[in-house]
Amino acid sequence: MNDSNASRQGNGFVLGSLVGGALGFFVIAVVIGGGGYVWIKKKEADVRRGWNLVPVVVAAQDLAEDTVITFESISQRSVPEQFVTSSVVRPDSANYIVNQRILVAAQAGDLMLWSQFETKKQADCFVAARDIPVGAKLTEDDMLPQGMDPKLVTPSYVKEPERPQVVGRPVIAAFRKGDPILWTHFHNEPPPVTRDSAR
User: Fold this and answer.
1) Which end of the chain is more exposed for a tag (fewer CB within 10 A), N or C?
2) C-beta of residue 161 within 8 angstroms of C-beta of residue 138
3) pLDDT tens-digit profile of 51-73?
4) Domain ranges of the chain
């Protein structure tokens, strides 16, 4: 009887040891496997970093020096973000280079760079960043800077130095998004005379 109990206890111990060992092995395998999975995902992210695609503006055709840019002459393409610096024109800013002359020739597919355009000759005016109803007080967020051909800019256009004089003023005529900000949209007083408007 004692030998039988001892034998059963021995078998139970061996069985318990085997089950415990198997469970321990399984837990270790899960921990190592999970850690390995996390490590592999991190390595994938490291390798992919900088290769996420972002949209940029490119030449849609070969452009000769001094060509006036139109919406038809530019296109959009996605390139790895590591190649996109602040000097590259992004699609949401494409309207700033349209109707400007490119200073250097570009081939179809070339990135459009701000340095390829003579922005100094553009008059710094403002357009409405959104629809602005009558009676609304103009805020900084309502005004979007826009380079314009100085020959087209009249004294009624609000220019960069005049910005503080219109912020906070109520609008007497509604603006639609993209409309130039004009002094005539405020009260009937003439715009202030500045060096820029006197030219």
Assistant:
1) N
2) no
3) 888 999 999 999 999 899 999 99
4) 1-49, 53-116, 122-198
Answer whether residue 162 shows pLDDT above 90.
no
> Which of helix, strand or coil describes residue 21?
helix
**Type and span of the H or E element at 80:** strand 74-80
DSSP 146-179: EEE-GGG--TTBPBGGGHHHHTTPBPSS-B-TT-
Residue 99's alpha-carbon distances to 68, 114, 127, 191, 195, in angstroms, are 6, 14, 16, 27, 26
What dotted CATH number matches 122-198? 3.90.1210.10
Rounded CA gap, 183 and 46, in Å?
Answer: 53
pTM of the model: 0.41
**Which residues touch 118 (CB under 8 Å, ≥6 apart)?**
100, 101, 103
